[in-house]
Amino acid sequence: MPNTTHTNVLNLKGTRLFIILAGFFITNAILAEFIGMKIFSLENTLGISPFEWNIFGHKGSLMLSAGVLIWPVVFIMTDIINEYYGKRGVKMLSYMTAGLISFGFVVVYMSIQLAPADFWITDFTESGVEDMQVAFSAVYGQGLFIIVGSIVAFLLGQIVDAFIFQKVRSVTSEKSIWIRATVSTIVSQLLDSFLVLYIAFVIGNDWTTSLWLAVGTVNFSYKVFMAILMLPLLYIIHGAIDRYLGKEIASAMKAEAKYS
């Protein structure tokens, strides 16, 4: 006979919530890494006139990685997880996600090395692809410095975000989630935006310092703008979680998260 005196851990609301938040966090982080190789024009996508920025002696339009489209979801998940599970929860998921991203890149690299079937190489000419193997390798075969840069920047950015979030939380009221969410995101994304470009393109591709600063500033500005724009959604999710957990459980989890 099974022992029925213990509650199944999956029946606990806090456990189910963590699994759901972790699923969104990990999925969006991995997707952002793999779609991030596409660079798109924000102005053309929105059908507006090009915004010609001029920073540190460099000019350009708003050409961004497709990964920035879903990174705001990671920002929100990071802050929500920190709110209810503390730094420990954010760090655990960040380390796990970095490992899974690395595993994903290894699998992609191995798939590139597989000998392609003859028809797979040449039977896509009608769609404008002359060699599918070359196209596949070009799209998914990111350079080593880009891979290392993105993983290192992500991991350090998350650790800094978790630390700053709890530091700000200790000096603000429990209701001021927008302050700790905004400050932690600004600091962590300042690190993330410039570090990934430095490793990938200054070290890996001989970018000048001025170009690195210019592109980094544009990317950082976009991320901060999106983080602020997403604040109402943060409050909506926060309210929904409080209602799901109930006032007593939610308050207890938040109190414990301060010291975890």
Notes on the structure:
It is a single chain. By secondary structure, this protein is mainly alpha-helical. The protein has one domain. 71% of the residues lie in helices and 5% in strands. The protein has helices spanning 13-35, 42-46, 71-113, 118-122, 132-140, 144-169, 177-203, 209-229, 231-245, 247-257; strands spanning 39-41, 53-55, 58-60, 63-65. The strands form 2 sheets. It has a two-stranded antiparallel sheet with strand order 1-4. Strands 2-3 form a two-stranded antiparallel sheet. Helix 6 runs antiparallel to helix 7, helix 7 (177-203) runs antiparallel to helix 8 and helix 9 packs across helix 10. It is globular.
Quick take:
This protein has 260 residues and is mainly α. Helix content is 71%, strand content 5%.
